[in-house]
């Protein structure tokens, strides 16, 4: 059976679990120290053992790698560092044979400044590609406004030959595309249809709510034509083809998310929204904000209830932009594995499509690195700016270490051998030194490992309709240790309870569940009335009591 025969039917992604791969750090097959497509193909058996249904690959297209591939210079070419188009075709075929789809990462908001379009655009104001980007006349010392770019510095860069600035929300090497220009939209749609014809299972769409913007008014997302553009994108490409599509929408609120994931399939399958993932940040990711568990529970409850029957949630703790959850909100010390399992149980019991980020299933942690080891321009720029604006270097280091995207980008830890089995060469980025204890080989050999908790959660989702169909009722909303909730639907009732703290917690099991053993328990049979530190369990009952 294959992905397209076995799983590919309308709404398949509502019962699916997706796995995000950061190709540069997953598996190197040719010894150059950089992860590649043949390396992913070589690890498909591992991913099939885990039980995932599709793999989201961070960009593998031609790129100068200023932003590790999120700066694309040719949308239709596989970057030689990752391999060839034939390597990608081989991966798609080999994954399909295992019932796994391949999801590509589309960066439609901007290109690399090395893209042919931009190289043409900056030649002259009347070049046919000039208006593929956003230009403003000006003088060298007076940008159109004071907008700042996400990675630091101004969002406008001066081109003396043209006497103009161009707009970039990210690095200067990532000029924003002008979606107001129908030629841009047409060229992007044609490219997407090229990849659909190659047999991909879907797309992740980078900062997709930022394609409609008003730079003159400081508006960088959710511009007035956004829904018009997104519905046209759907109609002209993946609409009606049962592909999974997930838009990254940092600016999404519940109302917008309902539009993006409308059950009529007019836009996307779902979006990544980040409300629950910024609770520990005070405006800037480099400034910590104290928070408590009831805030997280309230946010998740809002999104669960807000999209139930009206849209679809994506479920994630991790991705290539976020620090590793076990270090961020778990315990990467004595209770590392237990806290990783508890966080997994809480997430995977929810309604929506879960995403597992590479290494999350091993309980991989943040890395104790500094500027000499970081490879992300965001981290390096932030550290420099913090130091230049008066933050003492030790505090700047701690602030960036806590949230650096590099934490998620250290090589996947496969074995306790050299370079964690990631490469036989010199890795492009240092391996987290804890690979000798935290690696896939050890996890597969340990029935009690985090890996097998993820494998069990994936299997339970596939065997029990309540995961995809059930509603959501939060229990003990004010409890600062326990995250517990009920799901009812699909002819079943499910209870999930987790102690997300390092101290024992009181938890009175509702009577209906006291008579049945848990379907999953991370620390053996729970003791009635209490939950051990970082203990989680999941109960299933027939009927929708
Ligand atoms: O990220 C969107 C984005 O804005 C993030 O960079 C976020 O602001 C930042 O990570 C907060 O720490 C997407 C991609 O996921 C990211 O890797 C790219 O760098 C970015 O877009 C530009 O393409
Ligand atoms: Ca390689």
TrEMBL record:
Residue spans making up a coiled coil are none
Q: Which CDD domains match?
A: AmyAc_SI_OligoGlu_DGase (cd11333)
Q: Which UniProt keywords apply?
A: Glycosidase, Hydrolase
The processes (GO biological process) annotated in the record are: oligosaccharide catabolic process
Q: Tell whether Metal-binding is among the UniProt keywords.
A: no
The record's annotation in InterPro entries points to:
GH, GH13_cat_dom, Glyco_hydro_b, Malt_amylase-like_C, O16G_dom_2
* Lineage: superkingdom: Bacteria
Keyword Hydrolase carried by entry: yes
Question: Which intervals hold domain Glycosyl hydrolase family 13 catalytic?
Answer: 20-409
Q: Which SMART domains match?
A: Aamy
Q: Per its record, what are the GO molecular function terms?
A: alpha-amylase activity
Q: Which NCBIfam families match?
A: PRK10933.1
Similarity field:
Belongs to the glycosyl hydrolase 13 family.
This chain belongs to which protein, by name? Alpha-glucosidase
Q: Which organism is it from?
A: Candidatus Gemmiger excrementipullorum
